Amino acid sequence: MKLFDRSGYKPQLTEEGRALLSDAEIVFRRLDRLNARVAAMTEGEDVDLPLAVDAGFSPKLLAASVAALLSESPHVNLRIRIMHEARILDEVLSGRARIGIVSLEAGLSGKQVDGRDLATHEMHTVAAPGYPLSKVKAPFPLSALDDHRQIVVAGGEAAAHGFDYRVHTTDVLIVDNAALKLELLKAGAGWAFALDHEVEGALADGSLRSLESSAVQHAGLHRFGAIWRVTAPPGRAASRLLDLISEEAGKAEAARTYRAS
Hints:
Blueprint: E1 4-5, E2 12-13, H1 15-42, E3 48-54, H2 59-72, E4 77-83, H3 85-94, E5 99-103, E6 113-127, E7 150-153, H4 156-161, E8 172-175, H5 178-186, E9 192-195, H6 196-205, E10 209-210, E11 220-229, H7 236-260
Parallel strand pairs: 3-4, 3-5, 7-8
Antiparallel strand pairs: 1-2, 5-11, 6-9, 6-10, 6-11
């Protein structure tokens, strides 16, 4: 196979040579990545980073941070699993996840973990405009929520072991994902506490409305943090990812403050 045409002043790639060039570039990129992984392993850095992420955490914020990390450190292999908050502590303690991103609202028990704050999301009380609760004169007392069906995202663990203060248990519709919760809300099946990134589009187009309770003067803030085993603190790549998430969250919070001013 002839790869170069040497008939001219300078050798030129033949058609076959050009066809193989892209394959060669892929091989060299893979070699560069392999060398980077070997160097990182030699220095004790993260090369495989399994994450367990709360289903309520903003996917947009997470995606932007992950993309930024991979542009800086393409040798890192990330494995991201989204799950309900009740499972995350066990994933971290078992070692199946190096880092857990979890809601801090329900509290965490266990002396075997350490962690840090990451982000806050606004929490809204929402329902469809035609839902009966939306027609109650605002601001209504918090107890009025008990007279209407609440839609809750929860895994089997939460349903089996009971809910926390965020659930008004008189009439509860339990689903296992936020997408279904959103569609049920828009269909008028109930009301819900929902994070800003879950309902911002529906609030903007009017298919959902934010409800006003006399006990809640402002939209609540829902805190998320990162946890890890005390004996396995985050390495360089994991620490960088958490810093990137905090930076992205800071930008989102600044934009939220600006809109509110």
